[in-house]
């Protein structure tokens, strides 16, 4: 037995599930009936396996340095079991690292660069996303209000959950920042009668949603614009604003500017729903063990995370008040597994929707990305927070119970669920 094979066998013996590894030499380690079979083509992959570099292993898979037989769920169980430490701990930095990240964040988020980064991800292929998202193409955390909901039902529940939290009323001016494929924009218009404006930096999403608006006969009171949030006109403030899945693209160094802009876009007493992924650790801007670097390289260039504590600090500094905070972390784990399972069931169709020389690399990257993020939410390395914000009104008249009469939300949060 070679020395490499001996080391591999020792590593495999420590894992919580049976794994077989086929070495570049053709030698095998582990049982033939293992649940996962890794076919390694480059010895560097063995080093990454031994050292627990989960993100680098993901890159090795994308670049074709190994293949595997077995389920994606078992592959993620393997990935989590080889980590030498919590990815939250490994992503912590000293003061110099923190200052460097802050400077990088400033440099990487110009309007032109943000547009390119959004188009890199969302303009990959509409047909590809359609294969594994729900019919409304809602590309954000679902809300499993009932345990037996499908992901499509849970996405509709999420859209309504947001509308209820915002207390949308007929005729209100509603802004959806980063409106995606129009799920929330159209739900709010059709079910709550609002005058709705959506913005996006994705050319594909812009064209798709405008076709839907036309088909549904909503052109009079729903519009979708290709626009950066920083360019929105502040002259006519909105009654309610939603930002769903866009906060992660803003950048840590731009958060004060972002929330300040939202405040200026909102009338006094109005409400904002900020729905976004947050870091599991206080000091890290990404998941450690190479996983953050993987997402930056292959999926979301320019994406940055912050802890909920920093988000709330930036909100307060910008002159907004947080009135309700809800962590939907388990819901996002379930959402991502539903997406991953749907993609895994249609891999051959997915290959046909992706064009160009990098098509196979893109498919491999998304397989790892969806399942890896599901694993991250399961382990609380990342979270998903809905934060309801108010542009604080000046206290004027009071009602018969001596409560301020101009509050935008009730005193009890059960209004969300009735």
From TrEMBL:
GO biological process: lipid biosynthetic process; methylation
One Pfam short name: CMAS
SUPFAM superfamilies: S-adenosyl-L-methionine-dependent methyltransferases (SSF53335)
Keyword Ubl conjugation: no
Keyword line: Lipid metabolism, Methyltransferase, S-adenosyl-L-methionine, Transferase
Source organism superkingdom: Bacteria
Protein family membership: Belongs to the CFA/CMAS family.
Protein's recorded name: Cyclopropane-fatty-acyl-phospholipid synthase
Classification of source organism: Bacteria, Pseudomonadati, Pseudomonadota, Betaproteobacteria, Burkholderiales
């Amino acid at each position: 037995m070679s020395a490499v094979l001996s080391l591999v066998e020792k590593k495999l013996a420590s894992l919580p599930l049976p794994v077989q590894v086929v070495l570049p030499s053709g030698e095998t380690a582990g049982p033939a009936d293992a649940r996962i079979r890794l076919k390694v083509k480059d010895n560097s992959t063995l080093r990454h396996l031994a050292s627990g570099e989960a993100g680098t292993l993901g890159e090795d898979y994308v670049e074709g340095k190994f293949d595997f037989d077995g389920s994606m769920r078992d592959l993620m169980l393997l990935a989590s079991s080889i980590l030498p430490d919590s990815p939250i701990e490994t992503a912590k930095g000293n003061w110099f690292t923190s200052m460097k990240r802050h400077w990088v964040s400033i440099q990487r988020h110009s309007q032109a660069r943000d547009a390119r980064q959004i188009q890199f991800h969302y303009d990959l292929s509409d047909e590809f996303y359609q294969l594994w998202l729900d019919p409304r193409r809602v590309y954000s955390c679902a809300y499993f209000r009932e345990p037996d909901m499908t992901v499509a039902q849970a996405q509709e529940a999420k859209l309504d959950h947001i509308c209820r939290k915002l207390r949308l009323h007929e005729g209100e001016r509603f802004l959806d920042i980063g409106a995606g494929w129009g799920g929330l924009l159209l739900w709010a218009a059709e079910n709550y009668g609002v005058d709705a404006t959506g913005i996006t930096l994705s050319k594909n999403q812009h064209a798709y949603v405008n076709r839907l608006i036309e088909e549904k006969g909503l052109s009079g009171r729903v519009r979708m614009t290709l626009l950066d949030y920083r360019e929105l006109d502040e002259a006519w403030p909105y009654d309610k604003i939603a930002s769903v899945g866009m906060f992660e693209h803003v950048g840590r160094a731009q958060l004060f500017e972002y929330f300040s802009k939202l405040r200026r876009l909102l009338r006094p007493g109005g409400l904002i729903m900020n729905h976004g992924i947050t870091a599991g650790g206080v000091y890290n801007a990404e998941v450690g063990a190479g996983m953050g670097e993987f997402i930056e390289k292959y999926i979301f260039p320019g994406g940055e995370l912050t802890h909920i504590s920093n988000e709330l600090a930036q909100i307060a500094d910008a002159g907004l008040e947080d009135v309700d905070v809800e962590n939907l972390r388990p819901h996002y784990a379930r959402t991502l597994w539903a997406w991953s399972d749907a993609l895994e069931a249609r891999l051959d169709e997915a290959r046909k929707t992706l064009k160009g020389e990098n098509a196979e690399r893109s498919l491999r990257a998304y397989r790892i990305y969806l399942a890896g993020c599901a694993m991250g939410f399961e382990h609380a390395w990342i979270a998903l927070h809905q934060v309801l914000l108010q542009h604080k009104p000046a206290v004027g008249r009071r009602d018969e119970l001596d409560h301020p009469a101009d509050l935008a939300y009730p005193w009890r949060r059960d209004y969300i669920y009735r």
